[in-house]
Design brief:
By secondary structure, the protein is an alpha+beta fold. 44% of the residues lie in helices and 11% in strands. It is built from twelve helices and five strands. It has helices at residues 10-20, 25-31, 36-44, 51-60, 65-74, 92-105, 124-129, 144-149, 161-178, 182-192, 240-243, 255-264, and strands at residues 110-113, 119-122, 216-220, 223-232, 246-252. Strands 2-1-5-4-3 form a five-stranded antiparallel β-sheet. It is elongated, with a radius of gyration of 22 Å.
Length: 266
């Protein structure tokens, strides 16, 4: 849950978001159909913004919906966006849609994670890659970052672990900058502290690296598989839970990987 000190004030919080987005008061005022003077008064606490103004500014600053709720609460308003449990009846159609999407992507791996990288759904392609992972890491709730970077997880089999690890940690850092989540910060500090074994340059022979994106190059049995990952989120979500879901798919980066997956998961 996001926690914000009441002493912080909505004005300084909005100013922080504006500066993070590198937008001037004048530019934000033009986007939000306001004036630079009024934006300045709001940021310094000389004017109390209306609920509508907060939501308008948040929209133009592309503030995550969880943080929009926090801004409203600090300003003395009720949260606008619900946080519906994923297993609630109201999200049944969403869950069914996600299950169909993941099944349709098979035999290639795909999964859905929440805002702290806990796995909420996964297909058979992911299950195949999990072979050999410690049972301790596969005890619910499964966490994608732990499974990937833990020495008892996938890490020893990732041929390009230093590069892949650096990319994942940078992804988490960007997310932490947007969402002040103690849980996410604690997870980052945990996985960043995992030891990284130096495999040596000789262990990377035979990698098939696409030029257009950093691949995940991972051993599976006597094979070396190569994937390019993509992440999708929901457009204009109106619920905190839905806003923080991410669908991650792994596209085979070469024909050998694609053929192996079709053979193993017909």
């Amino acid at each position: 849950m996001t926690t914000v000190s009441p002493d912080t004030g909505v004005g300084p919080l909005l100013r922080g978001w504006r500066e993070r987005r590198r937008i001037s008061q004048l530019e934000l005022a033009l986007r939000a159909d306001s004036s630079a003077r009024h934006i300045s008064f709001v940021e310094t606490g000389r004017a109390r913004p209306s609920e509508d103004m907060i939501l308008r500014l948040a929209e133009h600053l592309d503030i995550p919906v969880r943080e929009r709720n926090a801004l409203l609460v600090v300003a003395g308003y009720a949260p606008r966006y619900a946080q519906t449990p994923l297993d609630a009846p109201a999200l049944a159609s969403l869950r069914e849609g996600l299950d169909r999407l993941l099944a349709g992507y098979e035999p290639y791996p795909a999964l859905v994670v929440d805002g702290t990288y806990d796995v909420v759904a996964a297909n058979r392609g992911i299950a195949l890659l999990m072979e050999g992972v410690s049972e301790e890491l596969l005890t619910p709730p499964l966490n994608a970052m732990r499974i990937t970077l833990h020495p008892a997880g996938l890490a020893p089999r990732i041929r390009n672990l230093p590069e892949w690890r650096a990319d994942l940690l940078a992804q988490m850092e960007r997310q932490i900058a947007l969402v002040r989540s103690p849980e996410l910060r604690a997870l980052y500090e945990e996985v960043a502290a995992y030891p990284v074994a130096d495999r040596g340059a000789g262990d990377r022979s035979g990698e098939r690296t696409p030029s257009f994106a950093l691949p995940l190059v991972i051993e599976h049995g006597d094979r070396v598989l190569s994937f390019v990952a993509s992440i999708a989120t929901f457009n204009t979500p109106m619920d905190v839970t839905v806003a923080e879901l991410a669908i991650e798919t792994f596209l085979p980066a070469d024909r050998e990987t694609a053929a192996y997956l079709r053979e193993r998961l017909p």
